[in-house]
Amino acid sequence: MAMAAAFLMAAPAAFSQSQTQPLLQKLYMPQEQTESSIPVSSQAKPSLPARTSRRYKTIKIAGFCSFVLPGDKLFMGGNPVLGLEADDRLSEVLPVLENLKTHPITINVHSDNMGFSHFNDRLTEKRGELLRDWFLKHGHFDPEGITVVGHGGSRPLEPNQLPGGKDNPAGRAANRRVEIVVETLAGFVSSKEKEALRLAAAAAEEESSSGDKDKSAKPPEVDVSKLPPELQELHQIMNTDKTAAGDAEPEPEPPVSDHTPDGRRKIPELSAAEKEKLKKETEWARKEFGLFQPLQ
């Protein structure tokens, strides 16, 4: 008992000030917050990088450029209705098509062979019209420059069934697609531009014809009385020579009618040689076939 009391009395002296000061700071002084001490919910979340990969396939051949998009990502089920990802995927290809809008654009929509063929044809056509309306609404296109073709299931990329007759879901998904084809070697001319070109050509033709008429028109008459006497005499001599040479234009002859005054057609007059030839032919036909009566 005496030993325990002696130990307690000696304990305060054993701990120096240098040993107790860090302990007090740790207990009563505020600590600096580090990244590990901050709760996870309050930490700033890293920003996601922007999407750089294209979600459509580009095919380039001589004179054509095609953009292929999966139909399952554009439409909802077997209906002509845009899906949830349609706006994002079509927005990716929109600026590319706007740069090529001076060329004819064709939207080809395909499906698999499930169901009736006439239903698939009509379904793909409606889906193509829906896509064309979307591009006209969100872009700057001429309605006449975009053509829609619904192929149904007539042009599959992959077999819809495996050789053993088993269904091929992957092949069906590949066949349900949209192909946007741009004819890069052909130029698109709208109806307004065609009409403007037609009017410009007509105006140029009219201007050229009026210029020809002005060239063929007679020169204006000169007031001879205001000329000096020598020039008056020369002008008179030149006009006299033109009249004598027959430069004056002949008056047009009246049209000859081939009908009599009572409306009957005139019988053409034959020359003597033509009459003689007709007579010989008639005599020969009468002798050979008993035709015609002898001419009087």
Can you walk through the features of this model?
A five-stranded mixed sheet has the order 1-2-5-3-4. The chain is built from nine helices and five strands, in the order ααββααβαβαβααα. It has a domain at 57-159 and 167-183: 2-Layer Sandwich (60s Ribosomal Protein L30, Chain: A), CATH 3.30.1330. 45% of the residues lie in helices and 11% in strands.
Which terms summarize this structure?
single chain, about 300 residues, alpha+beta, 60s Ribosomal Protein L30, Chain: A, 5-stranded mixed beta sheet, 9 helices
What's the topology here?
Layout: H1 2-14, H2 17-28, E1 57-61, E2 64-70, H3 71-74, H4 86-99, E3 105-110, H5 117-138, E4 146-152, H6 169-175, E5 177-183, H7 191-216, H8 229-244, H9 272-289
Parallel strand pairs: 3-4
Antiparallel strand pairs: 1-2, 2-5, 3-5
Number of separate strands? 5
Shape from CA axes? elongated
What characterizes the major β-sheet? 5 strands, mixed
CATH class of the domain at 57-159 and 167-183: Alpha Beta
Helix- and strand-based class?
A: alpha+beta
- Kindly report the CATH topology of the domain at 57-159 and 167-183: 60s Ribosomal Protein L30, Chain: A
* Rg (CA only): 50 Å
Which architecture of the domain at 57-159 and 167-183 per CATH? 2-Layer Sandwich
Q: What value does the average pLDDT take? A: 77
The gist of it:
The chain has helices spanning 2-14, 17-28, 71-74, 86-99, 117-138, 169-175, 191-216, 229-244, 272-289; strands at residues 57-61, 64-70, 105-110, 146-152, 177-183. By secondary structure, the chain is an alpha+beta fold. The chain starts with a helix and ends in a 7-residue tail after the last helix.
